[in-house]
Amino acid sequence: MKNFLFVAAVLLYSCNRSSTDTVVLQKRIDSLQTLVNNSYKPGLGEFMSDIQVHHAKLWFAGKYGNWDLANFEVGEIQEALDDIPKYCSDRPEVKSIGMIEPAIDSVSAAIKDKDQNKFDSSFTLLTATCNDCHKATNHGFNRIKIPDIPPVSNQVFRPQ
Ligand code: HEC
């Protein structure tokens, strides 16, 4: 009897304890969930504004034959494109994002070959594809063009 009481007491203690642990764990999960829900996630428009700047920088880098910078800028565009499906999965337009890849590939090839003519034509194709996707996703009013002036005045686009 004594033994039985002892076992029962231990069982009771451990049950109580595990239910307390569960409550503590649930509270932690809830607070982490709140943290995740409130954490900053860039929207599609923010990714696009970022891509817009790199698109303009890429043009001037290529125009001046600054191939290292051009390679960097196309990489920045690619990074943003890769992140879009991850962060903007709630946007149905995202399924069209892949249409830009052939144009990105041909710009990258022109940069690799340091070929000015190929760069110009592939950049024109890239810009047209930005607009094709905007039209396909009912955002045709966001019309992209080859820039006339550098997007910022505090960066040098010509090679050293
Ligand atoms: C999925 C296909 C798709 C492709 C490819 C695409 N865009 Fe967009 N873009 C969108 C959508 C959708 C929006 C509207 C985003 C929103 O609702 O904020 C947009 C918006 C924009 C905007 C407006 C952003 C703002 O908030 O003012 C710019 C600028 C832009 N895109 C630039 C580009 C450039 C430059 C390229 C090509 C290098 C490009 N986009 C390629 C779909 C695309």
Question: Care to describe what's here?
Answer:
This protein folds into two domains: 1-39; 44-136, Up-down Bundle (Four Helix Bundle (Hemerythrin (Met), subunit A)), CATH 1.20.120. The chain is mainly α and 160 residues long. The longest helix is centred in the N-terminal third of the chain and has 37 residues, at 2-38. It has helices spanning 2-38, 44-63, 67-87, 101-112, 116-136. Helix 2 runs antiparallel to helix 3 (67-87), helix 2 (44-63) packs antiparallel against helix 5 (116-136) and helix 3 (67-87) runs antiparallel to helix 4. Helix content is 69%, strand content 0%. The structure holds heme C.
Could you give the topology of this structure?
Layout: H1 2-38, H2 44-63, H3 67-87, H4 101-112, H5 116-136
Helix pairs in contact: 2-3, 2-5, 3-4, 4-5
